[in-house]
Amino acid sequence: MAGLTKEMKEAFGKMKIFPVATATKDGTPNVVPIGVVELVSDDTIWITDNFMNKSLENLKSNPKIALYVWGPEIKGCFQVKGHATVKTSGRDFDEMKATLNKKNPALPARSLIIVKITDVFECQPGPNAGNKIL
Question: What are the residue boundaries of the structural domains of the chain, listed by start?
């Protein structure tokens, strides 16, 4: 598993909305904006599924996922790829749901997507664009 650097973690913390990409088993892509994303360790991301449909179905048959980290307050940009597991019960799910309910009880928190980071790629324009960082 790849662990994010200090600078990457700081950039991650500044993001408001994350573009999250999944694909069907046969490779049809899907990307959605997700607002409830948390870096819980150097190599693990939690994504709360409040309203996912296609993305959730994709993850059930193809656990590969990618997130893009870039914005006006962020120096540089990078893409995180990982392997996702969908949870609808258990300790981690309960913790996510309790935390979200404190912040916004109107959100349903239907499932927790646990992403183990496998790779990180440069997406800054230039000669290193697309290169693997971690």
Answer: 6-122
**Largest Cα–Cα distance of the chain, in whole Å?**
46
| Beta-sheet strand order (sheet of 37-41) | 29-34, 18-23, 64-69, 78-87, 111-122, 44-49, 37-41
User: Which of 6, 13, 19, 35 lies closest to 81 in space, CA to CA?
Assistant: 19
Tell me the whole-structure pTM to 2 decimals. Answer: 0.94
User: How many CB atoms are closer than 10 A to CB 43?
Assistant: 16
**What tens digit of pLDDT does each residue of 4-20 get?**
889 999 999 999 999 99
Quickly name the fold that domain 6-122 has: Pnp Oxidase; Chain A (2.30.110)
Residue 55: strand, helix, or coil: helix
